[in-house]
Amino acid sequence: MNSAAAFVSPDINDSASALALGIDTGGTQTRWALAKANQDIIASGTAAGLTALQLKSQQGRREFAQVFSDLAAAVRSHGHLQTVRVGITGFSDDMRVVILEMLTGILQMPESRIRLGTDIEIAYLDSFKPGTGYLVYAGTGSIAAYIDGSGQFHRAGGRGYLLDDGGSGFWIAREAVRHIWRTEDECPGASRDSLLAQEIFKAIGGDDWDSSKDFMYHRSRGDIGKLALAVAASANADPVAADILKRAGQELARLGMAMCQRFGNKPVVLSGRVLELHPFIAASCRTHLPSEINLRTSICQAHFSAARLAARQLQSIT
Description:
By secondary structure, the chain is α/β, with parallel strands linked by helices.
C-alpha cells in the first residue's frame, strides 16, 4: 500500500489537534484526505482500491480491513482523528452494520463519528449543491447521479461491469480486447499491424489468446480498467482506438440525458479518471448532448470533499 501523504502542511505536528478524515474508495484506488475544523486540507494520500462487494467473501473482508488498518495508522501520525466521512464504491444500506462494526474497531471511535455513503454521493457534493445539476462520473465504472432538493439520491447506470458501465475504464478496455480478438477471428495475424493491439498486448504481457484470457478472466476489474490507458496511448494514430474513446463519450452522454429526461434539463458535470485518458471522450460527450445543456468537466477531488464534510461534523463537536 502507498499511504505516503501527497502533501503535508508544516504546522500539523501537534498531536492534540482534532482532525476530520475523508475517504473515497474506488475499484482502482482509495484516496484519503485530512482536514482541520476550518475545512483546510492538511494532508492526503492513497491506498489500494476497494469495493463494498469484497465484503461478500472472508478473504475480501480481510483485505478490506487491512487497507483501512494501514490507512488509519498513516493518518494518526498527523493528529487526533475525530470524525470520518467515507464514500465506498458498491456500498448499499444492507452493508452498513458490517462496515460500521469494522471501522469503529479499526478507527477506535464511536459509530456516531463515522458517516458512510457511496463514493458517488461524495463526488456529487463535490460538484453541486443538492437539486442543482447532474454528475456523470466515469472511473473503473460509470454512473450518473442526482441528489434532489430534499436530499434523495437518484441514479442512472452504475449497474456494474457485467451489465453495463458504458463509457467506463473497464468498458473501454473490454471493447478494445473484444475488437482485437474478433478481428483475429476474421483475419489471423491482423493484430501485428494494429497499434491498438500492440499497446494492449504490451500491457497484458503477451500477444496470444491465453495471455488475454488469463488477464481478462482472472485479474481484478481495476486491473482490467487500466488497459484503457493503452487504448488512449494509441488513439491519435489508431482509428479503432479513437472510435472506442468517442463511443465512450457517447455512452456517458446517454447517462446525462437519462437524468434530463427524468428531472428536466440541468447543468451536467462530467468527472472521473476516465476524462484524463484523452480529450476525445469529453468532446464526444459534448457532441451527443443537446446544445442547451450546459456541460463542464471536473477532475473530481472527492476525498477532499469528504474531508470537508467530515470537518463540518467536527465543528459541531469541538
